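Supplementary Methods. Inverse-folding protocol.

Structures were first reduced to a discrete structure-token string of length 391. This string, shown here, constituted the complete conditioning input.
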């Protein structure tokens, strides 16, 4: 009894997506007062929210999350022991696993994993191994005893670090007692670049030669494996499409072929309009637009936005570092849109109002490109140099 009323035990409720991803955590509290002191009441409290992009967690409680190629949030030693920046327990931490607060073990979908010993607590249900791959005989091993080059999302079998969920699931469905055959079949289905780093030449064996010869004769794949796709971040500027306006609008195009990302990110008002014909209309809030590019053509977007015809300010192309920045930018926009939006103004003051150029500048400032873009501007760009709160 507390203050003349009875408070019954609360319940914590978890919501998951159809893919098994946790979307939110909520607390339900039932309060029943003594007779004559009012009616029972029930309260609901939000404890946590999550935003996913495909299989990647991109925002937690409105804050961007940028996992590495193993799916880890935070910094860890190779087998998962904490280094720096790790989130709390009962959260996704090392290599997509959830760290249990009671046992301090990592939950790996099927078994539990001990990051101190670097082994699962239960044996892989499959039997057998290969003389070409001695690590395959250890049914408790994590990621084929290669924690840098491999990952093991389900705890049942390894797949290449950074591989998509489809490749991991496919390789888990192949017989692990023949690693060479497993690698050859996965290479035939997804291409050699998809399994690079997971299958050594010893494991592939003579099957590689036969596979390449057969594919070359049938014309089904090139004799040389294709290089891994590169990610890119491009910044553009264009004039504001209103008669007599000398101002310019900026935006960012991001691309990550491995994740199927090719989008334009730009800020704009929630109530876009022509200020000449609708002088008294309000602009609303500043929101982030995510406009996909399909077959080279932008879908949606604000009037005048077109990477094909607009002036490019700078371009950055590269591998893992640039790909991580692409995911970070997309996660920042999604997290901002899910939070509190700031007020929009064409000529913002930088404290209570912001605009599309403030939006672009804030994104580039996160990844260290704002300085280079500032040098390349050369035209009047109101709002540039202002950092948008919450983005």
């Amino acid at each position: 009894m507390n203050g003349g009323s009875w408070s019954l035990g609360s319940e914590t409720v978890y919501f998951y997506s159809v893919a098994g991803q946790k979307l939110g955590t909520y607390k339900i509290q039932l309060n029943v007062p003594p007779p004559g002191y009012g009616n029972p009441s029930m309260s609901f409290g939000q404890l946590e929210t999550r935003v996913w992009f495909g299989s990647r967690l991109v925002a937690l409680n409105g804050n961007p999350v940028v996992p590495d190629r193993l799916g880890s949030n935070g910094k860890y030693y190779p087998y998962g022991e904490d280094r720096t920046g790790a989130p709390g327990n009962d959260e996704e931490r090392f290599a997509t696993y959830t760290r249990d607060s009671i046992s301090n073990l990592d939950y790996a979908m099927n078994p539990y994993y001990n990051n101190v010993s670097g082994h699962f607590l239960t044996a892989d249900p499959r039997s057998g191994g290969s003389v070409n791959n001695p690590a395959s005989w250890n049914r408790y091993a994590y990621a084929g005893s290669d924690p840098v080059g491999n990952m093991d999302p389900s705890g049942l079998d390894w797949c290449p670090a950074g591989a998509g969920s489809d490749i991991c699931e496919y390789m888990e469905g192949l017989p692990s007692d023949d690693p060479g055959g497993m690698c050859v079949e996965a290479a035939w289905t997804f291409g050699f670049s998809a399994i690079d780093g997971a299958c050594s030449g010893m494991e592939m064996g003579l099957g590689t030669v036969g596979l390449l010869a057969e594919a070359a004769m049938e014309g089904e794949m090139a004799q040389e494996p294709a290089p891994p796709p590169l990610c890119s971040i491009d910044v553009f500027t264009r004039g504001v499409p209103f008669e007599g306006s000398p101002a310019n609008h900026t935006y960012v195009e991001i691309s990550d072929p491995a994740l199927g990302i090719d989008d334009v990110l730009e800020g704009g008002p929630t109530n876009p309009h022509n200020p000449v014909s609708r002088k008294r209309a309000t602009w609303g809030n500043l929101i982030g637009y995510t406009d996909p590019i399909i077959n080279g053509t932008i879908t949606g977007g604000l009037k005048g936005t077109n990477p094909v015809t607009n002036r490019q300010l700078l371009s950055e192309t590269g591998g893992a570092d640039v790909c991580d920045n692409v995911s970070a930018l997309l996660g920042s926009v999604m997290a901002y849109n899910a939070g509190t939006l700031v007020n929009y103004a064409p000529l913002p003051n930088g404290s209570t109002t912001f605009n599309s150029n403030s939006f672009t500048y804030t994104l580039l400032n996160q990844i260290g490109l704002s300085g280079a873009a500032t040098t390349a501007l050369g035209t009047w760009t109101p709002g540039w140099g202002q950092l948008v709160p919450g983005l």
